[in-house]
Amino acid sequence: MLSAQMPEAEWNDERTRIICELFVEQVHAGNRPNTHLNNIGYRIAAAKFQERTQLLYTKLQLKNKWDKFKSDYITWKKLLVVGAGLPWDAARGTFVADDEWWKKTNKVCHTYSVSAIFAVLTILILSHPFLFFDW
């Protein structure tokens, strides 16, 4: 019997912002008993995400995004240390650094594109710090 496979979730900045807001709602609602949302939290977040985006993502896809947030948050915290002393671009929400610095930093933080995730995470963390507590 063939099983239908869900297409891979696609996360742009807008969808990331939406799911982050929905995760925060569920944390405030008490649906994060430990390090992840519970089944109710994921179900509600998935339903509201579908209402707002017309995209149906599974619990596993949302949990994968939650886990990605956690690993990106760890990278973001490393960057704050590595980038200490660099000028800050408030409009872009990131450090002012040349391409060579970012290339070296990608190797230090073991990620493919630190500069791409840093600005988005800065905005999310500053606007929703409650989501990232206890990580």
What would you note in describing this structure?
The protein has 6 helices and 2 strands; from the N terminus they run αααββααα. By secondary structure, the protein is mainly α. It has one domain (13-129). 22% of the residues are buried.
- If you average the pLDDT, what whole number results? 80
N→C terminal distance: 41 Å
Largest sheet: 2 strands, antiparallel
Strand line-up of the largest beta sheet = 1-2
Secondary-structure element pattern, one letter each? HHHEEHHH
**Domains (count):** 1
Strand content: under 5%
Structural class of the secondary elements? mainly alpha
- Strand tally is 2
Overall body shape: elongated
Given as residue ranges, the uncertain stretches (5+ residues, pLDDT < 50) are: none
* Number of helices in the DSSP assignment: 6
Helix content: 55-70%
CA radius of gyration: 16 Å
Top keywords for this entry?
mainly alpha; elongated; 135 residues
How is this fold's topology laid out?
Elements: H1 13-28, H2 39-53, H3 59-82, E1 88-89, E2 94-95, H4 99-109, H5 114-127, H6 129-132
Antiparallel strand pairs: 1-2
Helix pairs in contact: 1-2, 3-5
